[in-house]
Amino acid sequence: MVRLKSYVLDAWREGDAPFRTLVNPATEQPVAETSTRGLDFAAVHRHAREVGGPALRSLSFAERGALLKAMSRALYAQRERLIEVAIANGGNTRGDAKFDIDGATGTLSYYASLGKQLGDAKWLVDGEAEQLTRSSARFYGLHLRVPRRGAAVHINAFNFPAWGTFEKAAVALLAGVPVITKPATSTAWLTYEMVKILVDEAVLPAGALQLLVGSTGDLLDHVDGQDIVAFTGSADTGAALRGGAGPVSASTAINVEADSLNASVLGPDVDPGSDLWSWFVNGVVREMTQKSGQKCTAIRRVFAPEARLDALRDALAEELDRLVIGDPADPEVRMGPLTTASQLRDYREGVALLSSEGRIVYGSTDPVDAKGVPAGTGYFAGPVILRCDAPREARHVHGHEVFGPVVTLMPYDGTAEDAAALVAKGGGMLATSLATNDRSLLGALALELAPYNGRLLLVDKKVADQATPHGMVLPNLVHGGPGRAGGGEELGGLRGLEHYTQRVALQGNRGLLEKLFVP
C-alpha cells in the first residue's frame, strides 16, 4: 500500500496519524493511505505568495506557456502508468481513465499555446485606450489585467482527479498565480502521481505548485483578498465555503462549480432511426455510463414529446443491454463501479426519492452481478431509467441529482416555451443539449435557456457527426453555470485568466501609458 505525502514548501511531507485509507472501488482492497495532520497551512500560503508568486510573475506569458507545455509532455510520457493508477483507485475503465488524463494534458497544451500567442508580455491590456476629457487629447484611460499577489487555492472533486486538477492549474499558472491544489482524498492517488512526475522532472519554479493530499484543515482560514478559491463539488459545500471566516472577512474571490441537473431536449421533428435520433440516444447512454455517470456535466433529465417517450426508452434500453459492468481492469468491461461506498448509498437513496415522482422503466438498484469480481464485492451500480409523467408538478426530479448512471425521461408539448420552462426548473445548469432540425425551435429555445445555462449544445443533422459529446468540457469555451450550478465560470480561453488577475484602470498621459504598458 502506498503512503501518499503532500508536496508543500518544495518538499514531500508526510502527515501525522491517523491516516485515511484509499481503496480500489471494484475490489474494496486498500491501495493507499494519507493524512495532512500536522502540516502548517499558514506556511503553505506564505510560501506560495512569497516564493511561487514572484517566480511566476517574473516570467512572460510565453515563458509560462512553455512551463505548461513541459508539464503536458512530462505527464503524457507516463500516461500508461497513470492509467493503471486511475483504474486501481478511481474505478475507471481504461477509456474513462484516458478521458480524464488526456483532458488534463490537452488543457495544459491548449493554454501553453495561448501563452505563446501572448508572447513577451507579463500582463494583459484590456481594451483600447480612451480619451477622458474633451479639452485634452492627451489625458487618457487604459485598463490592464495584472496577476493577483496571492495564491490560487483549488479544491477538486473526486471524479476527475487529473482533468479537474490541471484545468484549473493551467489557467492560474499562465496568469502568473501560484497554485495550492487539494484533490478529493478518495481518489487522490492519481493527482499525487501526476504532481510527483512534475516534481521529479523539475518542471516548475519553486513555490509554483503545492499539493495537499488529505483533509483541508484550516487552509481557508488563511486566505486573503489577493487569493482566489476555486471549488468543484456539491452545492452545499460550495455554500459553506462562501460563508467561511476567511472568504467573508477578506472578500476573497471564490469560483464554485457545483452539481447540476443538466438536461437534453429532443425536438418533435426527430424521427426514430434518423441520424439525429441516433446521436441523441448514443449521447444519453454515454453520459449515463462514462465515469459510471459520475460527471458534473452528465445528462440527468431528458425531455421529449410524449409520443416519442416509449420509443426513446426502448432505444436507450437496447444500448444499455449491451453494457458490461465489472472490474474496470478487464478490457471487456464498459462501466466500472461508483467511487465510494457512500456514493453507492446515495445512488440507491436518490433513485428511491426520484421514484416517488415517477417509476423505474429500466434497471434497478439491486446489487449488480459484476464481471471479474466476487459476488457482493465493490461499489457497483446498474443503469436506471425513470419516467416522470408529471414534470410540471414534480419537485425532486428537478432538485435532487443522483450522481450515478441514472436519467429521468419526461414529456413536453413540443414547443420551445414548454421545454424551456421545464428545463429551467433545474435552477441553473452547466449544460443543456438540444437535438432538432427545426431552426425556429432551436433559436427560440436557445435564447430562453441561455440565462439558465453555462453552455448550450445545439445539434442538427448537419453537425450530428461532428458535435462533441454533451458532457465534454472544452478549454476554449467557458465551463460553469448560474444558480444551482454554482454561479461560477472557468476556462473559456483567455476569459479564464480574468479570475486570477485584477483589472485596474490607469489614467494619465496617453503616450506614457502606451509606452509603458502596451506591448
What does this structure look like?
With 519 residues, this protein is α/β, with parallel strands linked by helices. It folds into two domains: 2-258 and 489-517, Aldehyde Dehydrogenase, Chain A, domain 1, CATH 3.40.605; 262-473, Aldehyde Dehydrogenase, Chain A, domain 2 (3-Layer(aba) Sandwich). 35% of the residues lie in helices and 22% in strands. The chain contains 14 helices and 22 strands. It has helices spanning 41-57, 61-77, 79-90, 94-118, 163-175, 188-200, 235-242, 245-250, 275-289, 306-320, 341-355, 416-424, 439-449, 510-517, and strands spanning 2-3, 6-8, 11-13, 20-23, 30-34, 124-131, 139-147, 152-155, 179-182, 209-211, 228-232, 253-257, 262-266, 299-305, 359-362, 384-387, 406-412, 429-435, 453-459, 478-481, 488-491, 501-509. The protein has a seven-stranded mixed sheet, sandwiched between helices. It starts with a strand and ends with a helix.
Let me know the CATH homologous superfamily of the largest domain.
Answer: Aldehyde Dehydrogenase, Chain A, domain 1
Number of strands: 22
Number of H- or I-type helical stretches? 14
Question: What class would the helix/strand composition place it in?
Answer: alpha/beta
Determine the strand fraction and express it as a percent band. Answer: 15-25%
Q: What count of domains describes the coordinates?
A: 2
Give unreliable regions as ranges: none
Cα gyration radius (Å)? 24 Å
What characteristic shape results from the CA principal axes?
A: globular
Concise structural overview:
The protein has 519 residues and is α/β, with parallel strands linked by helices. The chain has two domains: 286 residues, Aldehyde Dehydrogenase, Chain A, domain 1, CATH 3.40.605; 212 residues, 3-Layer(aba) Sandwich (Aldehyde Dehydrogenase, Chain A, domain 2). 35% of the residues lie in helices and 22% in strands.
